[in-house]
Amino acid sequence: MNNDEIDSNAIEGSTLDYWLTEQVVADQDRIERLQKRGVVITNMGREEQEALNLNRCLDAYEKLLASKTELSEEMILRLHYVLLSKIEGYEKYRGVWRPVNVMIRGSSHVFPHHAEVQSLMRNLLAWYKENEKLVQPVELAAKFHTKFTIIHPFADGNGRMARLLMNYILQLNGFPFTNIPLRRRSLYMRTQAAGNRGEQKPFVLFLADEITKQNKRLKTR
């Protein structure tokens, strides 16, 4: 358990702090043993389940990274299936491109119609493959993140998936896993709003700055 997981959920509105999140994840094995014995766990709230799911998602992420699995529809959908596991009301939306239209409260941005999502994601993955060796990795990861969030391909979990895939691209190219701290949420969200307007440079610069800070932190350990 680390701050990367906590901040990624907190950016999306989770109120769990480090200690509470650590306790939830520590109970993961016990909960799974009980569930295998047929015990139904009914007192876990959405935030606790999301913390467990992101932890499991990162475990799956590490295995994919270790085998250098290429970005693909199947890989992205597999991760999303884990991310939305056991989230009440979202069972039919996990691991599939959204079959509904979506909006963000307080935002005027209009996301693509759900019927266009699969085609748009295939175009995004084709763009990634075409530019994988041509575009500097930080710029590539940042632009992939922005393009992904503009499509908003899932009914829920788009921000967390965008950050996971951004980091996957970075780590495939030898960069460290780079957390977006909760304290920089406002600036991060402004760069996303700029991306929605077609301005990709603000997030590229934002990510480059966070990577620089992460490298400095790693050197002082």
Structure report:
This protein has 221 residues and is mostly helical. The chain has a single domain, classed as Fic-like fold (Orthogonal Bundle), CATH 1.10.3290. Helices cover 61% and strands 0% of the residues. The protein is built from 10 helices and no strands. It has helices spanning 3-11, 18-26, 28-36, 46-66, 73-83, 117-131, 137-151, 158-172, 185-196, 201-219. Helix 7 (137-151) crosses helix 10. The longest helix is centred in the N-terminal third of the chain and has 21 residues, at 46-66.
Give structural attributes.
221 residues; Fic-like fold; 10 helices; globular
Q: What's the short story on this structure?
A:
61% of the residues lie in helices and 0% in strands. It is mainly alpha-helical.
Share of helix, binned? 55-70%
Strand content: under 5%
Structural class, from helix and strand content?
Answer: mainly alpha
CATH-scheme architecture? Orthogonal Bundle
Run of helices and strands:
HHHHHHHHHH
Give the integer mean of the pLDDT values: 85
Poorly predicted runs of 5 or more residues = 13-21
User: In the CATH scheme, what's the topology name?
Assistant: Fic-like fold
CATH class: Mainly Alpha
Termini separation: 18 Å
Tell how many strands the DSSP assignment holds: 0
Shape: globular
Sketch the major β-sheet: none
SSE layout and pairings?
Layout: H1 3-11, H2 18-26, H3 28-36, H4 46-66, H5 73-83, H6 117-131, H7 137-151, H8 158-172, H9 185-196, H10 201-219
Helix pairs in contact: 4-5, 4-8, 6-7, 7-8, 7-10, 9-10
